[in-house]
Amino acid sequence: MAMIEKIRQQRGLLLVMIGVGLLSFLIPYDAVMSLFGNSNSSIGEIDGQSISAQEWQRAVQDREPLFQYQGNEQSLSNDTWNQLVENIIYQDEYDNLGIEISDEEYDEITFGELLSPFVKSTIYGGKDSTSLKEQVRKSFDGMDAAMAENWRKLIKQKRQKEKYDLMLRKGTYANNVDAKWAFKAANDKVAIDYVVKTFTEIADSTITWTDSDVRAYYNKHKNDREYRQETSRSVKYINFPVQATATDSAALRESLEKMAEDFRKASSDSMFAVNNASNASEAFTNYADGMFPADIEARIKGDSLGTVIGPIVNNGRYFLLKPSKRGTDNNSVEARHILIKDKATGKAKLDSLKGVITANKNFEEMAKTYSEDPGSGAQGGGLGKFGRGQMVKPFEDACFNGAVGSLQIVESDFGWHLIEVTGKNFPYTKVAQIDRPIEPSSKTVKSAYALAKEFSLNCSDTASFHASADTLNGGTKLIDGKNIKANATSVASLNEAGELVSWAYSAELGEVSQPMMIGKEYIIAALTEVKEKGVPTYENVYDAMKAETIKEKKAEKYAAMMNEGSLADIASRIGGEVKKAENVTMRSSNLPMSGVSAQENVVIGACFGIGTGKMSKAIIGKGGVYVIQRSADAVSGESTDNYESDRDRTTSSYQQKTSNSIFSSFREAAQIEDNRYERR
Predict the structure, then answer these.
(1) pLDDT surpasses 70 at 115
(2) What is the model's pLDDT at position 381?
(3) Distance between CA atoms of residues 501 and 513, nearest Å
(4) pLDDT of residue 412
(5) What is the mean pLDDT of residues 98-126?
(6) Is residue 316 within 8 Å of residue 381, measured between CB atoms?
(7) Taking 50 as the threshold, does the pLDDT of residue 25 lie above it?
């Protein structure tokens, strides 16, 4: 009664909230909230430009139809965001340099001779042929106008970036000084004797340290670049697979066995298959060789029409198959061609080639040598099967009207073609098929959920989470998901892990999740670490800084022990030995036989900086403490081509790094704020 009375007292507010709820069905959320003074509808900021929720939604909606995301919202979001970032941070550069893409250039890089790298890899799948370009052009011509415009916009944006990167590469080079130093770094050599005490040789238990030492190290190094962190979350999770049992498989088989008789009697094979198949788009199709094992394929091609084959298991699915129609396909042909683009000389060249091919039966060889179709030429001219309307009219007419094996010369807009029809009137078998994936039943799913739920009920924090995992099935391994970004699409071995990522960014440190179905398993996770952008917390870097503190203490102790006496004295004092290193170059990452894998730039530099016969003081490196003595003068390498090959290699190295380096600099300078995950 008290609750009802309180509702009555607040009925005005209640009516307002109901009105907001109804209004939200008609007006977008952000527009509704703006009515109540909430105008902050930004989902992020790129180079000072705020990205509104409406702008973001339009960008997502424009991109989604262009690619097959198949419900992978996280990938769609990330790809859309990355494209926005690229567009915004480069736009001033494009404007200042006058990098524009005309409609004529767009047509050429999308359908013409000079396909852009993006178009070729994304739309053409890396292939390039005249026939394929014609197919793509027809596809674009028949496309929804809005979708075609979004493709045009994206292709132009990508082309601007390609041209900008090419300008960077062409404007980047190594001069003679760069080449000389690159050569010297690789070829000048020194020989040294040295003693090293590696940090791994020194037991941590022999070093005295306190938490105050770690805290002091943290205060000194917390702003170092290597410790500055990005926003991320870390989890540990356990999985409960949901797999079909033998009982589930048997039940599915039994249901299909019962269906088989109705399938056999069906008046419309295609309609019955479409209504009962899990994959309706493939329920009635021309059979293609290799779809099923050889014994089943023989039955499909040889059994009487109307025979129901199955249930059979193939690639994790049950199938019922019914050969429904056999005949001859008159609407497709198979052909190969040789293209000569020059219309003035093309026919004469092909007349000559035709004579050679007729005599020697070497069409494939001639196509590889002479065809100017870059796609099919490399494949011996082969175009595979194609149907009516897929080729330009003169080419199509020659193929469909010509006899198999005949050689014809025809002219099209692309030039002159020598065509050989290699196949037509293909026999086919039309098959109606009902497929069902072998999946766990609802009972099996409920059983797996019950097990996962029981586990989660015993876990109120990370300690009990670990304890429960240790006892489950005699001990179950916990899987680490470390440094998960807010836009991550996968976590460790989990694909499409958006639900887990969303949970991690809404949970409190130490919280344990409820069971989440990801893929074909239930997941229970514990949030083990929270990082926010900027200076790390002491707790987040404690383990790493403790290790560095101990290493620092080891270095201090052994540097003091290694600053007096000869190399032999020092080696005896620390329980080591004097080692030799010859042919040390400035490109060496560390000293041979040192037992250190870390990059020891300071030590390598000292090898070249010290005089012959001189001995260094203790050098504290990344992997240990060293004392070195130069045993001979440096030997300078001699270039045989005045550093020309080194200049070429160095230029190539610079050019490869340029685009990525510029992009990284632009991203950093843009101070990007990505708040997409906060709107989940």
Answers:
(1) yes
(2) 94
(3) 12
(4) 92
(5) 93
(6) no
(7) no
The tens digit of pLDDT for each residue in 569-619 reads 999 999 999 999 999 999 999 999 999 999 999 999 999 999 999 999 999
Long-range contacts formed by 143-148: CB under 8 A, 24+ apart: 147/65, 147/66
Per-residue pLDDT at 18: 37
Q: Tell me the CATH class for 232-243+441-531.
A: alpha beta
Torsion (CA) 458, 462, 468, 472 in degrees, nearest 10: 130
The Cα-based distances of 594 to 39, 580, 581, 619, 625 in angstroms read 63, 10, 9, 14, 11
Pairing of strands 190-198, 42-46: unpaired
Q: Which two tokens stand for residue 86?
A: 């690229």
Q: What is the pLDDT of residue 678?
A: 61
d(CA 419, CA 398): 8
How far, in Å, CA of 503 to CA of 262, rounded? 47
220, 514 in Cβ contact below 8 A?
Answer: no
Please name the residues in contact with 353: beta carbons below 8 A apart, sequence gap of 6 or more.
Answer: 338, 366, 370, 418
| Collapsed DSSP state (helix, strand, coil) of residue 116 | coil
pTM metric for this prediction: 0.64
Name the token pair of 267: 């008046």
Q: What single-letter amino acid sits at 7?
A: I
Rounded Cα distance between 26 and 32, Å, is 9
Tokens (6 digits) for 326: 């056999």
Please compute, for residue 301, the number of CA atoms within 13 A of its CA located in the half-sphere on the CB side.
Answer: 14
Helices (H), 481-600: 498-506, 542-561, 567-574
364/377 Cα distance (integer angstroms): 9
Rounded distance, CA 201 to CA 197, Å?
Answer: 7
End-to-end CA distance of the chain: 36
DSSP label of 530: E
Q: What is the pLDDT of residue 128?
A: 82
Domains 232-243+441-531 and 246-439 agree in fold: yes
Q: Are the C-beta atoms of residues 440 and 248 closer than 8 Å to each other?
A: yes
Q: Are 292 and 435 in contact (CB under 8 A)?
A: no
DSSP, residue by residue, 595-613: ---S--HHHHHHHHHSPTT
Domain-wise residue ranges, the chain: 1-39, 189-228+542-630, 232-243+441-531, 246-439
Q: Are strands 382-387 and 317-340 parallel, antiparallel or unpaired?
A: antiparallel
Cβ-based neighbour number of residue 558 at 10 Å: 24
CATH class of 246-439: alpha beta
3-state secondary structure of 9: helix
Q: Say what the pLDDT of residue 17 is.
A: 40
CB neighbour class for 434 (10 Å; exposed up to 12, middle 13-18, buried from 19): buried
Instruction: Answer yes or no: are the C-beta atoms of 632 and 614 closer than 8 Å.
Output: no
Mean pLDDT of 420-428: 92
State how far the Cα of 546 lies from the Cα of 568, in Å rounded to an integer.
33
State the DSSP string of 642-679: TTHHHHHHHHHHHHHHHHHHHHHHHHHHHT-EE-GGGG
| In the predicted structure, residue 297 carries a pLDDT above the cut 60 | yes
From CA 526, how far away is CA 532, in angstroms rounded? 18
Give me the phi and psi of 234, to 5 degrees please: -125, 140
Which helix (H) or strand (E) is 619 found in, with range?
strand 619-620
Question: Over 60: is that where the pLDDT of 639 sits?
Answer: yes
Q: With a cut of 90, say whether residue 58 has pLDDT above it.
A: yes
Cis, peptide link before residue 536, omega less than 30° from 0: no
Q: Are strands 42-46 and 673-674 parallel, antiparallel or unpaired?
A: antiparallel
